[in-house]
Amino acid sequence: MNTSSTRPIVLCLSGHDPSGGAGLQADIEALMAQGCHAAPTVTALTVQNSIDVSDFRVLDAAWVLAQVDAVISDLTIAGVKLGMLGSVEMVDTVVQILKRLPNVPIVCDPVLRAGGGGSLGKDDVGYAMRERLLPIATIATPNLPEARILAELPQGTPDQCAEKILPFCQHLLITGGHGDEHEVHNRLYSRNGSFRTFTCERLSGSYHGSGCTLASTLAGRLALGEDMMHAVENALSYTWRALRDADKPGAGQHFPRRLPLDFCS
């Protein structure tokens, strides 16, 4: 029997990764695992695989707006996840979209670099995100290299970056994993002065789509009604398990296993 869906719907604005390790496919899988439904809106097309990204093309703003119009005219949006935007124009387009969705939790993953190091943003997209997008987001989830770009501190520590970024956003989760410490430290900062560090065991290897997985999961947990602290804790725990169980389908990075093998059985 067909019944109306009770799954929260999360609007995902991000790029398409043809390898399926990151981007919108990562969003869809992670949100399914949380019991949510992903409404994926394509902002950019990329040429990439498990090794690196070699090219990308940002879609015309009109195409993105048309996709969003079709979705929000029909579906009730309970959360938003932002991924690769790729250009200043796309940042401004997304700002227009978000103003139409008041009181909806917004998770901004400032995708500026691929896991292999290649650029996924042009012009001053990092500056535009900080100045115009973060102020209307609920939480931003940069890794440390991305936080340094947003803070304009090439060698900044997480605390130094947070001091520069927090005036622009309500909450900031700077993820670890880019050093060589035995444990990974993920730091949640809030504008009200609260702070918490979440620590997990460092896993060997490198991973393609870990940031997308975390941000999408967090958007799903917030859409389900969890408070910020529990949503972050649950998202980090789920992401760590997805990385622990990752496989390596190509010659480069591992892909997180966001769905269990028996998910559809």
Automatic annotation (TrEMBL):
One of its GO terms (molecular function) is hydroxymethylpyrimidine kinase activity. Keywords: Kinase, Transferase. Residues 17-253 form the Pyridoxamine kinase/Phosphomethylpyrimidine kinase domain. Its EC number is 2.7.1.49. Pathway: Cofactor biosynthesis; thiamine diphosphate biosynthesis. GO terms for biological process: thiamine biosynthetic process; thiamine diphosphate biosynthetic process. It comes from the Bacteria. One of its GO terms (cellular component) is cytosol. It is an enzyme of class 2 (transferase). InterPro entries: HMP/HMP-P_kinase_dom, PM/HMP-P_kinase-1, Ribokinase-like. This is hydroxymethylpyrimidine kinase.
